[in-house]
From TrEMBL:
<keyword id="KW-0032">Aminotransferase</keyword>
<feature type="domain" description="Aminotransferase class I/classII large">
    <location>
        <begin position="8"/>
        <end position="116"/>
    </location>
</feature>
<dbReference type="GO" id="GO:0008483">
    <property type="term" value="F:transaminase activity"/>
</dbReference>
<dbReference type="InterPro" id="IPR050859">
    <property type="entry name" value="Class-I_PLP-dep_aminotransf"/>
</dbReference>
<dbReference type="InterPro" id="IPR015421">
    <property type="entry name" value="PyrdxlP-dep_Trfase_major"/>
</dbReference>
<keyword id="KW-0808">Transferase</keyword>
<protein>
    <submittedName>
        <fullName>Putative HTH-type transcriptional regulator YjiR</fullName>
    </submittedName>
</protein>
<keyword id="KW-0663">Pyridoxal phosphate</keyword>
<dbReference type="Pfam" id="PF00155">
    <property type="entry name" value="Aminotran_1_2"/>
</dbReference>
<dbReference type="GO" id="GO:0030170">
    <property type="term" value="F:pyridoxal phosphate binding"/>
</dbReference>
<dbReference type="GO" id="GO:1901605">
    <property type="term" value="P:alpha-amino acid metabolic process"/>
</dbReference>
<dbReference type="InterPro" id="IPR015424">
    <property type="entry name" value="PyrdxlP-dep_Trfase"/>
</dbReference>
<dbReference type="InterPro" id="IPR004839">
    <property type="entry name" value="Aminotransferase_I/II_large"/>
</dbReference>
């Protein structure tokens, strides 16, 4: 079992999130060792070995390594620097396979450096239980 992190820091994170419009109790905040640690923890919660996850393509190579480590299969969804992830391709993949998680970079995509448009984020989240990462905030929602 892992510690959720230094309690005074979790309180401060909850305050910052509240100031940004997201109400969260400090007990719901987990401090990680960085984005890959947070992604690993999230994927362990949402998936089991053999599950499929979707990711924008091209994607961060570390995600592919992490998926391999966790025994996950990755469905790559084409992305464009100007328009972001192809929502049509995502919908086709979702109709064909049971996708357990969508990994989407919402600020500046690595390696494209392109932002995900708000309308694209909202559309991606409409079809599934999702993990949304916005800078320092991670929010789980259920459809």
């Amino acid at each position: 079992m892992f510690s959720p992190g230094f309690e005074p820091l979790r309180r401060q994170v909850a305050i910052r999130m509240r100031d940004a419009g997201v109400v969260v109790d400090p007990s719901e905040v987990v401090i990680t060792h960085g984005c890959v640690d947070a992604l690993q923890m999230s994927l362990r919660v949402l998936t089991r070995p053999g599950d499929l996850i979707a990711a924008e393509s091209p994607t961060y190579y570390g995600l592919l390594q992490l998926a391999d480590l966790l025994g996950l299969k990755v469905i790559e969804i084409p992305s464009d620097p100007a328009t972001g992830m192809s929502l049509e391709a995502l919908q086709l993949a979702a109709n064909q396979w049971s996708i357990k998680a969508l990994v989407l970079t919402t600020r500046l995509s690595n390696p494209l450096g392109a932002p995900c448009q708000r309308s694209g984020r909202n559309s991606c989240c409409a079809w599934r239980r999702t993990l949304i990462s916005r800078s320092s905030k991670m929010i789980f929602t259920a459809s």
